[in-house]
Structure formats: structure tokens, C-alpha cells
Amino acid sequence: MTDGEGGAPPEQQAPEQEAPEQATERQAQERREHVDTVARASDLITASQFAQRQDIRVRDVKQAANKARLGVKVEGVKMYYEDQLMEILGQKIEQIRRLRSRQVYYRVLAVDDDVENCDMIERILRKEFKVFRAQSGDDGLEILRRESIEVIIADQRMPGMSGTEFLTRSLRINPHTIRLMLSAYTDPEALAEAINEAKVHHFLSKPVDRDTLLKKVRAAFEVLAANRHLMAIELGQDD
Length: 239
Prior knowledge:
CATH superfamily of the largest domain: Response regulator
Structural class: alpha/beta
Mean pLDDT: 79
Distance between the termini: 114 Å
Strand order of the largest sheet: 5-4-6-7-8
Oligomer: single chain
């Protein structure tokens, strides 16, 4: 009888088991690969992938997609059709790009002796614009001489130099700025003086809320852009 005949079968080596953390990582990798495969095959994309391609925030993508009730689950991951995201986010993407261009070129000067009010204005506007601030008319004029300011927001009642006087004197330094005035009072004579002498474009009642301030400052830059466009046309015609 040969060796092994009729004896116990040879021992089989048990397969080596993965550590729990290795198995978890392997499963996660397989899931990512599967999701990527599905995305390539069906034009699906994750919110983060879309945000990266369009250079916008993931939060903006998710909020717009949830509001439009878009999205499908792939292995537990929520994904979206890219053309649908472009349809609902197209205008927002352009708006974000315009806001970024404002950050580069547009500068706002806030002049108010009330430090807390200056803090509030800066806090609201700083994500979109470069904000300079002054606590007096004299300090504001000094900033105007140093910086290329496009929009001025000035309080009407300040010690030493009123908002109307400050804005009137600012015209000698830069007549092309858009001038907004803050006031907690509605004095008809003061308003008329501000319009006639300081060329104020708009009045804002104090306390001003965030949405109103943003709306008026954005509108001011639209006026500024239109004025620059007209000037460029006139210069071109003169040539």
C-alpha cells in the first residue's frame, strides 16, 4: 500500500483572512470604482465633481439640486445628470463669476462715525467687494486720494463733517464714483441738498438690512459699468 492510501487526507491550509480595516478599505475602493464606472457610462456626476468642474461651491450645487428634486442613488452615493445641473445652475454660475470679477476690480468705501455700523457694512459686503472704511469725513477723503474707489456709502449725520459735505467734496477727487447715503432721518431739505450738491444716487434708511444693502450696492456697480461702457463708446467715436 502506497503512502497516504487509506490514511487521513492531507491537511489543507486555511486562506488568510483580511483584517477588518483592510476589508473596509477594499470595499470602499470597490464602491468608488463602481460609482466612477456608472458615472462614465451614464453621464452621471457627483455634486463635488460638478462643483470642481465649474469652480463653484459644493453647497450651492446640492442646494439647487435638492430644490429641483434631482439626483439618483448609485451604491448609496447621490449622483446627478450633468445637463440637468447645468440647466438649473447656469445663471448662478455666471452670477458667481461676475461677483468674483467685482472682488478684483470694485472697491467700496464706508464712512460712518458709528464703528458698529461700519462693522456691519463690511461684514455684509466683504465676500463680494473690497471694503475700505473711515470713521470721519476727513479720513474718507484721505482714502479717496489713495485708492480707486467706485462706490461710497456715507452716513448723513457725522460730527465735524456731514455726509452731504463729505460726498460733495469727494466729487472733486473722483466725480465718477456712485454715492449712496445712509440716514436714520427723513429731512426733506437735507435730502434735497444731498441730491443737488452731493449728487447722491440713492438713500438707505438706517438700520439697513443685509438684502437691501447688497441689492443697492450691486445695482450701483451696474450703473458704474453702464457709465464706463458709454464712456468707452464716446472715446471710440472721438477716435
